[in-house]
Amino acid sequence: MAIIRPTLEQVQDLASRLHIQLTPEQASEYLALMQPSFDAYDLVDELPDFIPPVRYERSSGYRPSSTDNPLNAWYYRTEVMGASSGKLAGKTVALKDNISLAGVPMMNGAAPLEGFVPSFDATVVTRLLDAGATILGKATCEHYCLSGGSHTSDPAPVHNPYRHGFTTGGSSSGSAALVASGEVDLAVGGDQGGSIRIPAAWCGIYGMKPTFGLVPYTGVMAIESTFDHVGPMTSNVRDNALMLEVMAGADGLDPRQSAPKVDAYCDYLERGVIGLRIGVLQEGFQLANQDPRIAEKVRSAIARLEALGARVEEVSVPEHTLAGSLWSPIGCEGLTMQMMHGNGAGFNWKGLYDVGLLDKQAGWRDQANALSPSLKLCMFVGQFGLERYNGRYYAKAQNIARFARAAYDKALNTYDLLVMPTVPITAQPLPEPGSSITETVTRALEMLGNTAAQDVTGHPAMSIPCGLVDGLPVGLMFVARHYAEGTLYQAAAAFEASVDWRTL
């Protein structure tokens, strides 16, 4: 059908919003000249969309009751059975609820998206199903994924499996809780500031943020295309490595990818750490809110690696702190433009667009007052930077990010891995309903000190469980060279095999 043409008055109004003044005569002339372009719009409207076919049967599923969902970790339940054989045959999977699963509702933790149903599967979904996995549903995630806690999701706050009433971490909150509680074998999370690794640390599981662009982000709702990562969350190292083998590699649809270097990650699991060079990152232990008990657990785990044969030294990389600071101008201005003004897609990149998601996300403007405080905060910062400074700080921060990456690279020329606490504190109590803006935002952002940096620099980073403090899990984070995920698995597997972390 033909698109609606603007009236003469609407053309004048459009011009005015573009800071252009038109006389009625000029507007009429332009309106006539616009018609051939609108004919092209008509053609696009008539053609079917060019999206991947859905290859595995599934039902639309259902919202589980609170009785069947005690941690609030499920958003939607369904069952999609994959191939009869493959690397993940017999394994069950939960998908973070910003990942498209055709025919099954996707809310991304936010009321403006409630009722949206994707029409195609994300690339990682198809790859998991091709490898024999069975998808059991969508895991609750934080409000537009803008929280490192688990209290901002519009469906409900997600409870920690180790202590009800405490946060799981976020934004892949439900993904971590479902793996930790044994409801699924595997989960897929997303990471733009630590959203895989934070909940992995607080729920006592293994969370991998791969090298930027290693795993295609196609079919996952974007936040900021230079930060967007998706990766595996599992209860053991081998499953994590298997999952990454299945998920990694170019799909030809994600412009975030540039000839990613895929490896046989399971080949690293039995290599041990004898001779492995590990740099203990001093800045990673110097966060203002560092709990000394967390630091002690992590240093004890490092000592165990040293006893297993690793060569361990202290190292300083001041740019680690700088990289974390760069997140604010890039993340806040980027998400304001891409996820909000750009309706979840943005412009000027070639990739697979979800037109239905774009249409649905445009409705956020009608519910803007209900956006989470942490998202509002980022939008206020981002909009100010865009309006007052024309995006120059986004641009300059992207330039400086290359400097921060080079500093990591320099340290990783000497060391195979850098190591530090994943998060500086243990899981905190969930804020009470009606909590102040300050408390809500604090509980959403207080844990990002070590994890945001690798989203800026793109280096792979993995959180592994290394002990308990007051009955709550502690995470140790490894960082490696770009595309050196195998080295992360090498160290993680050696530590896992040496001790039951729950006894530490």
Keywords:
single chain; 504 residues; alpha/beta; Amidase signature (AS) enzymes; 2 domains; eleven-stranded mixed sheet; two-stranded antiparallel sheet; 14 helices; 36% helix
Strand content: 5-15%
Overall pLDDT, averaged?
97
Let me know the number of strands: 13
CATH architecture of the largest domain: Alpha-Beta Complex
CATH superfamily of the largest domain: Amidase signature (AS) domain
What is the overall silhouette?
globular
CATH C-level class of the largest domain is: Alpha Beta
Helix content: 25-40%
Give the neighbour order of strands across the main sheet.
Answer: 1-3-2-6-8-7-12-13-11-9-10
The string of secondary-structure elements, in order, is HHEEHEEEHEHEEHEHEHHHHEHHEEH
Tell me the structural class: alpha/beta
Distance between the termini: 66 Å
Radius of gyration: 23 Å
Reported by name, the CATH topology of the largest domain is Amidase signature (AS) enzymes
Describe the 3D structure.
The protein is α/β, with parallel strands linked by helices. The protein folds into two domains: 8-46, no CATH class; 74-503, Amidase signature (AS) domain (Amidase signature (AS) enzymes, Alpha-Beta Complex). The protein is built from 14 helices and 13 strands. The chain has helices at 8-17, 24-46, 123-130, 173-180, 197-203, 237-247, 292-307, 319-341, 355-361, 373-389, 392-414, 437-445, 452-457, 485-498; strands at residues 74-81, 92-96, 134-139, 159-160, 163-167, 186-191, 206-209, 229-234, 277-281, 311-315, 417-421, 461-469, 472-479. It has an eleven-stranded mixed sheet with strand order 1-3-2-6-8-7-12-13-11-9-10, with helices on both faces. A two-stranded antiparallel ribbon has the order 4-5. Strand 12 and strand 13 form a beta hairpin. The longest helix has 23 residues, at 24-46. The termini are far apart. The model has no long low-confidence stretch (mean pLDDT 97). GO terms for molecular function: catalytic activity. InterPro entries: Amidase (IPR000120), Amidase_CS (IPR020556), Amidase_dom (IPR023631), AS_sf (IPR036928). Pfam families: Amidase (PF01425). This is Amidase. Residues 82-488 form the Amidase domain.
